[in-house]
Amino acid sequence: MELAFVGLGKMGRSILEGVLSAEFAAPSDIGVVERDEKTTNEAAAIYGVEPLRYENLSNAKRVLIALQPKQFPAIAEKLAHPSVGYISIMAGVSTSVLARNLGTRRVVRAMPNIAATIRKSTTALTAPKEGVEAGDLDYAMALFKTVGDAYRLPERLFDAFTAMAASAPAYVALVAEALADGGVHMGIPRKEALSFAADVLIATGELMRLKHPAVIKDEVASPGGTTIYGLAEIEKGAVRSAFYAAVESATRRGRELGEEE
Prior knowledge:
Layout: E1 3-6, H1 10-21, E2 30-33, H2 37-47, E3 50-51, E4 62-65, H3 72-79, E5 85-88, H4 95-102, E6 107-111, E7 121-126, H5 129-133, H6 136-144, E8 148-152, H7 158-166, H8 168-185, H9 190-208, H10 213-220, H11 226-236, H12 239-260
Parallel strand pairs: 1-2, 1-4, 2-3, 4-5, 5-6, 7-8
Antiparallel strand pairs: 6-7
């Protein structure tokens, strides 16, 4: 068996769907194990993959762990097989913690974001040299490209990446909601205001692949015009400082969670 999934929550299912859609692996080469036999069988039937038990994981070349971090310590022993490579999407769980609990250094730590559900994730990956030499990191990079973009990143930057890119959909959604509320305040119907906000954020993201955000801002904000007046109010609200503080605070919390593990 090429790949086994342990846990099929929202993120696990999104990754599995991306793998199947991209024909990264055949359904017959993919297995899944969930919290109980009934849930395992139901998930396997939905996706046409193999239902597994924990003891079957030794037959897999690689295992993707898509559990909540708090669930991992209790079942790590059931997952551990020295000949298997592991890919983890558990937030805050370092490669050293993975290696210690799984009995192998063939581990890859990955951090996708919620956009994996629409195959637009930004995913960071890292691995110790054993995971690199065994081909596990290259395999994981290719796997996560089925649900978006994938980047290799030093593990020391993972908490910052999580705080910025993995948490960013929540930050940006808050911005979109506030922008839409501003439109509603000025008389735009809510449905249209939300649609406008989404369209603008998507288009601005595409523009940022071509231009620095400061250039976009300067091109829109003409002297004495409406945009520069709006920007002045945003600066009064210390929005920049709030984003700095959000990323810093979330990074710090990520480190705390890692220490708890």
